[in-house]
Design brief:
By secondary structure, this protein is α/β, with parallel strands linked by helices. Helices cover 35% and strands 23% of the residues. It has two domains: 178 residues, Rossmann fold, CATH 3.40.50; 206 residues, CoaB-like (Rossmann fold, 3-Layer(aba) Sandwich), CATH 3.40.50.10300. The protein is elongated and about 95 Å long. It binds cytidine-5'-triphosphate (CTP).
């Protein structure tokens, strides 16, 4: 159910922390990789040894290991996670989250987390009902935090009422539902994605092309399809397998890609232009293989059509995303393409950055729109794709 999902389980100082052990076990059994962050007080309720054994990972409590000074990076942790689940979440922790207080690792991780966040509150009924707690929870909801409602029943105080943390199985169900919800968030939408390198024939044997592997475009197509969108992937030559649930249109030349994209664009909700399209193509294609002579030779080239710009002209309310691969004046060049081609945002790759570029599985990109630029750290192309699709969803 949760195979391959990275979950941070945050445990705060509540008697309900004893249930976190069962929850941790359920998450791991469902296939998730779990890292546990605890507050100092949480350690009084449940031992780090229990949580480390169940999660199969060391417990994180402090910003650094006092014995060897090793830093526990909340930023890296926040980037690693697909979900940050805080269970139990005390009134105190929720109040701090609502106001952006960052005085322990659990809270700095919250502020660094780019993934969905869910909290399972646990406290006495009066604390839960208090207007301050309700106000903080309302604030958290507005900030996009998912609240897994507490149940009613016997509380540790001896009182009976609402405030006991949801049962571990119910929290697991809520987590699974959350991932499903994310998956289906683009149901009913249709996207066009271009990917790979175009091939411009010189004669029946030779062609002009480039180093694009298509990996970035295929990752975007896969991510869109996983979230329920219908995807038409117009692809130049690659050696990649067709992603699951994607309608594939194979093309070779820039002209063929232009025709295929323009045939489908108006039926879509948007397009992501990842292909490395040749800007020039031979003026004529020889019918027979060109034979070599003694001297040098040159090939006359003509401009191809700019596919992205042509879609930009008839974009309407559709979302249009472009890529820019630059080696100098990166930001200025990307900015100018953003405006020229009428993109909503552009994904800038710098070939000068290590881990970025054509053939690898990782990328380092900056997302640029009219309001500014967001630099993303080194991440897998699949993660970059998720971030691109997240941004598309925000625009939609
Ligand atoms: N693009 C396109 N059709 C073309 C050329 C480019 O759809 N004929 C798209 C690419 O898929 C990318 C964006 O436009 O999303 C930017 O492409 P790029 O080649 O970097 O920009 P150019 O406009 O060709 O500028 P230059 O070659 O001068 O960098």
């Amino acid at each position: 159910m949760l195979k391959g999902k990275h979950i941070i389980l945050g445990v705060t100082g509540s008697i309900a922390a004893y249930k976190s052990a069962v929850l941790c076990r359920l998450l791991v059994s469902a296939g998730a990789e779990v890292k546990v962050v605890m507050t100092e007080l949480a350690k009084q309720f449940i031992t780090p040894l229990t949580m480390a054994t169940l999660s199969k990972n060391p417990i994180l409590v402090e910003f650094f290991n006092p014995e060897n000074g090793e830093w526990n990076s909340h930023v890296k942790l926040g980037e690693w996670a697909d979900l940050y689940l805080i269970a139990p979440a005390t009134a105190n922790t929720m109040a701090k989250m609502a106001t952006g207080v960052a005085d322990n690792l659990l809270l700095t991780t919250y502020l660094s987390a780019r993934c969905p966040v869910a909290v399972a509150p646990a406290m006495d009924l009066d604390m839960y009902a208090h207007v301050a707690t309700q106000r903080n929870m309302e604030r958290l909801k507005q900030d996009g935090v998912h609240i897994i409602e507490p149940g009613s029943g016997f509380l540790a105080s001896g009182l009976v009422g609402k405030g006991r943390m949801a049962e571990p199985q119910d929290i697991l169900d809520a987590v699974v539902a959350l991932f499903d919800e994310k998956k289906k968030s683009l149901e009913g939408k249709h996207f066009l994605v271009t990917a790979g390198a175009t091939i411009e024939p010189i004669d029946p044997v030779r062609f002009i092309s480039n180093h694009s592997s298509g990996k970035m475009g295929y990752a975007v197509a896969e991510s869109l399809a996983e979230r329920g969108a219908k995807v038409t992937l117009v692809s130049g030559r690659t050696s990649l397998a067709t992603p699951k649930g994607v309608d594939m249109v194979d093309v070779l030349s820039a002209e063929q890609m232009y025709e295929a994209c323009n045939a489908v664009f108006e039926q879509t909700d948007g397009a992501v232009m990842c292909a490395a399209v040749a800007d020039y193509t031979p003026q004529t294609v020889a019918d027979e293989k060109l034979k070599k002579g003694d001297g040098d030779m040159s090939i006359a080239l003509k401009r191809t059509k700019d596919i992205a710009a042509s879609l930009g002209e008839k974009k309407g309310s559709r979302v249009l995303v472009g890529f820019a691969m630059e080696t100098q004046n990166e930001r200025e060049n990307a900015q100018s393409k953003l405006e020229r081609k009428n993109f909503d945002f552009i994904v800038l790759n710098s070939l000068r950055t290590e881990g970025a570029g054509f053939r690898g599985d990782t990328n380092v990109v900056t997302l640029i729109d009219k309001c500014g630029a967001e630099e993303l750290p080194l991440m897998s192309k699949r993660e970059v794709a998720e971030r691109i699709v997240d941004k598309i969803e925000t625009i939609l």
